[in-house]
Design a protein that fits this description.
Order of helices and strands: EHEHEHEHEHHEHHHEHEHEHE
Strand order of the largest sheet: 4-3-1-2-9-10
Distance between the termini: 20 Å
Length: 266
C-alpha cells in the first residue's frame, strides 16, 4: 500500500508525540480521552527500534532530529512518550529547544510508594530507563519507604511490538516476573509505554490484587495544563520511520482505529 509523503501534508498547530514504536500510543490514547479534539501528530521511530539497548548519546541524537522535524511540522508541544528516551534526552531537548514545552515520562515510583500496602513495589522497565539518572534520583527519595524490585524485561517491548500472542507473552512474563511475585509486590510500575498494551496478561501473571500503575493519565493531565493552542483540528496524524503498514496494523489491533499512516523520513 502506497503511503502519502509526510512533506505533502499540511502542518496545523498540534501536539507532537514521539516514541520508538507503538508504546506511546497508550499515551496518545490517554491524551485523547482527556482532550478529544486536541490535534496530535504521532511519530513512531520504528526504523531504530528498540531504544533500550542503545547508548544515551545515540538516543539523544535520534530524538533531537525527530523533535526538530516535529516542530517544522507544526508541533507546539512535544510529548516524549518513551521512558528510555525521556531518561536519556529530556533535559537535553529542553536545553536545545528552550521555547518548546516538552513533556516526558517520569518513573511513577512516588504514586507506587503511596499506594503499596506491603511496602514492596515492582518496577518493569527497559535497561535504558533503569540506568537513567531520573529513575535513580526518584527511587532514592523513597528508598527508605519501600523496597523496589526491578526488572529490565529483556525482549518484552520488542515482543509486544511484533504482535506476539498472549500465550507467548504469558510464558515470557512468568519468567520475568517471578522475582516480583516471590518478593510479594502488591503494586507494579509500568516503566515502559508498551507494557499497558498487555495489562490483562500482566494481571493474569501477577494476580488480580496487584495494582498496575500506568503513567499515561498523568502525562495527559500535564499536556492539558500546558496546551495553549486550539482544540478543534479535524483529526490526528500518524507516521513511522519504518514500515507504515506495521503501525497501521497495531492501531487497528489495539485501538480499533483504521487510518492512514504516513512515512516519516527519520
Amino acid at each position: 500500500m502506497n503511503q502519502p509523503a509526510l512533506s505533502s501534508m499540511p502542518a496545523p498547530a498540534c501536539v507532537g508525540i514521539l516514541d520508538s514504536g507503538i508504546g506511546g500510543l497508550t499515551v496518545w490514547s490517554a491524551i485523547k480521552a482527556r482532550m478529544p479534539q486536541l490535534p496530535c501528530l504521532y511519530v513512531a521511530d520504528q526504523a531504530h527500534l528498540p531504544y533500550g539497548p542503545r547508548p544515551q548519546t545515540e538516543i539523544r541524537a535520534l530524538v533531537s532530529e525527530l523533535s526538530e522535524q516535529l516542530l517544522e511540522a507544526g508541533a507546539r508541544l512535544i510529548v516524549l512518550a518513551c521512558n528510555t528516551a525521556s531518561a536519556a534526552a529530556l533535559s537535553h531537548l529542553r536545553t536545545r529547544f528552550p521555547d518548546t514545552p516538552f513533556v516526558g515520562m517520569e518513573p511513577a515510583v512516588k504514586p507506587a510508594a503511596l499506594h503499596t500496602r506491603t511496602g514492596v513495589v515492582g518496577l518493569m522497565a527497559t535497561r535504558g530507563t533503569l540506568q537513567g539518572e531520573l529513575l535513580r534520583s526518584t527511587a532514592a527519595r523513597f528508598a527508605g519507604t519501600v523496597k523496589i524490585v526491578s526488572s529490565e524485561c529483556p525482549g518484552l517491548a520488542e515482543a509486544i511490538e511484533a504482535g506476539a500472542d498472549s500465550a507467548v507473552l504469558r510464558a515470557r512474563l512468568d519468567e520475568i516476573l517471578e522475582p516480583m511475585r516471590a518478593a510479594g509486590v502488591d503494586t507494579v510500575v509500568l516503566g515502559c509505554t508498551h507494557y499497558p498494551l498487555i495489562a490483562s496478561t500482566l494481571t493474569q501473571v501477577l494476580g488480580p490484587t496487584v495494582h498496575l500503575i500506568d503513567p499515561a493519565p498523568a502525562i495527559a493531565r500535564q499536556v492539558e495544563r500546558l496546551w495553549t493552542g486550539r482544540v478543534a483540528a479535524p483529526g490526528d496524524r500518524f507516521a513511522s520511520t519504518g514500515d507504515p503498514d506495521r503501525l497501521r496494523a497495531m492501531l487497528r489491533r489495539h485501538f480499533q482505529l483504521d487510518t492512514t499512516v504516513e512515512h516519516w523520513p527519520g
